[in-house]
Amino acid sequence: MPSCPLCGCPYLRHFHRDARRDYLRCETCRLVFVPPEQRLSPEREKAVYDQHENHPDDPGYRRFLSRLFDPLRSRLVPGAEGLDFGAGPGPTLSVMFEEAGYPMAIYDPFYAPDPAVLERRYDFITATEVVEHLFSPGHELERLAALLRQGGWLGLMTKRVASEEAFARWHYILDPTHVCFFSEASFEWLAQRLSMSVEFPAADVVMLQKQ
């Protein structure tokens, strides 16, 4: 039995099984995750991402991202410096922030793998539709929090687990690259672990502030 990829806890229970995969839930941080041996290989994972058609000229995609952009921007000081982590093949949120006057860096392990940007400090970091793809979310989110200046914001977008019954019918688990599923309790645990405050401005938006 694996340990939880968010908190490292060994106390897990079987949460759900479908035709393709199993899903385990951590009894400490409430993360639901796919066992490591059932994840895609990096090559197959990237093949799925290559099919994404997100683009900054798409007004619908901009409206989708505005669910994080609007509440986060309202909390930033002019000229705040940001990082868009997991920007994907068509970075768009970084463009929106740059248009609003916020200098941005981008990082993506497949499309913009520049390790130098992970050595700098930022006033805010965004990760939209990213955390559900992470194999080691505890390590990655702790690393991102360490890149924030005091008072900085970590803004995340991901759909949250509601209940065991809803999970069984959830379209979100059908994407083979989605391997970690957070609940509100998971983010509250994470905030305490990282000494951050946490807000939930929308159903799929989470904002954590470094204290």
TrEMBL record:
In the record, what terms sit under GO molecular function?
Answer: methyltransferase activity
Concerning InterPro entries, the annotation shows: SAM-dependent_MTases_sf (IPR029063)
Keywords from the named record: Methyltransferase, Transferase
Q: Does the keyword Secreted apply?
A: no
Superkingdom field = Bacteria
A Gene Ontology biological process term: methylation
Protein name according to UniProt: Class I SAM-dependent methyltransferase
Say which species the protein is native to.
Billgrantia kenyensis
